[in-house]
Each structure stands twice: as C-alpha cells, then as structure tokens.
Amino acid sequence: MNNKIDRKIALDIETTGLNHSGVLYKNHKIIEIGAIEIINRKITNNKFHVYLNPKRDISTEAFKIHGISRFFLEKKPIFSDIYLNFMEYIANSDIIAHNSNFDISFLNYEIKTLNKIFKKINESCKIIDTLKMARNIFPGKKNSLDALCDRYQIKYKNRTLHSAVIDANLVAKIYLRMTCIQKKINLNNVNDKIEYSLEYDSSLKSKLNILRASSKEEYKHQKYLNNMENSGSCLWMT
User: What would the 3-class secondary structure string for the chain be?
Assistant: First the structure.
C-alpha cells in the first residue's frame, strides 16, 4: 500500500499594484495572501489567510480590483511578522498558482527585503502554473479564472471583487479539474440548441482524458451542421 502524502498548496495574492514597465513588483507590496491545502487530491480545511499592512498607498487601479483599502490594513501585521509561519505552511509542498510569475516574483521580492541571503520559493518548491496548463489544453481561448470556472462549471458568483483566499480556492478546484479524467459528456438538443454538461472523476491523478464521440454522436453532429449550412453560411463546413 502506498501511504505517501501528496501535498499541494493553491496560492494567490493581492498587492498594492504593479508596474506596467520595468520590474513588475518593484516598490509595491503584498497586502493579502490566500493559500489552500490539497492532500492527495482532496481540498482540506487547513488554509493560510492573512491581510498585510503595506505601509504605503494602494494604487487606484489595484483598489478597483480587490477593494482593499489602506485604512482597513492599518492594524494588520507586516510581511516580516508572518514570514516564518507562511514558509512553514508551504514547506515540502508543490505550489499551484494562476499566472505564477506574478505571485512568486512578489513573494520572492518580499522575502529578499528581509535578508540579502535567502532561498527563492521556486528553488525550494515545485511551481505549477494553471494558466500555462490551460493554454496548453485550450490554445487560443480565454483562460482567465472566470473563463475556466465557466468552462469547468465551477461556481464563482460570490467573486464580485478579487480576494486572495477565494481565488486560491478557485485555483485549487480548477487544477483538480484540469488533472482529472473526464468521465462523461451529456449532450441535449433543447429548442434546437445544443446544451452540455460534464462529469469528472477527480479521485484519479492521470491527465485529462479526451472522450471521443461515438459514431451516433458524430452522425448527429454532422446532421446539425448540415442544418446550419441549409440556413446560411457555416464556417465549420468550409
């Protein structure tokens, strides 16, 4: 029996802003860290969530995204206060992030300001980027968190503003969906519109499996395209 524990941490941060030219993170600060634990492909209740006092202003652009004000953060800890607890939490784990370059570069910058001699997070933890994964699975398509939640039928309607802990939870669910086996696709023709729903087996660790259409499904699909062609130009028939 294999009793090895597979521990991964889905991670997200919010910041005071970012630089659109030059170094992405320079002179900016992290104001929220959210992390969700995944043990053997199961999301646990062991999460890490903290707000941080940046001791600087928050850009208007960033505030519109996360809605976190400097006033709200005034009595929160600074990064050095939580650093050891955070590093202990992520130790010996793979880190999952959506557009990991943003999160990891900011965290490394914060750590570097504490001590000139430090080990980068990506040197001690394996980094898994769900954005890169999504671009490989869905090339040419929109692969934001919202788009992936829609695609994998993950509820996110409470996400009116960005939140590190909410987004980390979404990243965890998206990762599990992208790395599981698709069991079934249900196609229904409702009022001449094709509706579909997906079923997954998230207990398996294998890569996403492509479910091939049956001969009957291919026939129905071709018939549907023929009807489209009869009603006008159909791009899929060219």
Answer: CCCCCCEEEEEEEEECCCCCCCCCCCCCCEEEEEEEEEECCEEEEEEEEEECCCCCCCCHHHHHHHCCCHHHHCCCCCHHHHHHHHHHHHCCCEEEECCHHHHHHHHHHHHHHHCCCCCCHHHHCCEEEHHHHHHHHCCCCCCCHHHHHHHCCCCCCCCCCCCHHHHHHHHHHHHHHHCCEEEEEEEEEECCEEEEEEEEECCCCCCCCCCCCCHHHHHHHHHHHHHHHHCCCCHHHC
| Per annotation, catalytic residue among 66, 98, 162, 221 | 162
Q: Let me know if 98 is a catalytic residue.
A: no
Using one digit for the tens of pLDDT, what is the confidence trace for 61-75?
999 999 999 999 999
pTM, two decimals, is 0.75
- pLDDT tens for 171-208 read 999 999 999 865 555 556 555 554 545 555 544 443 44
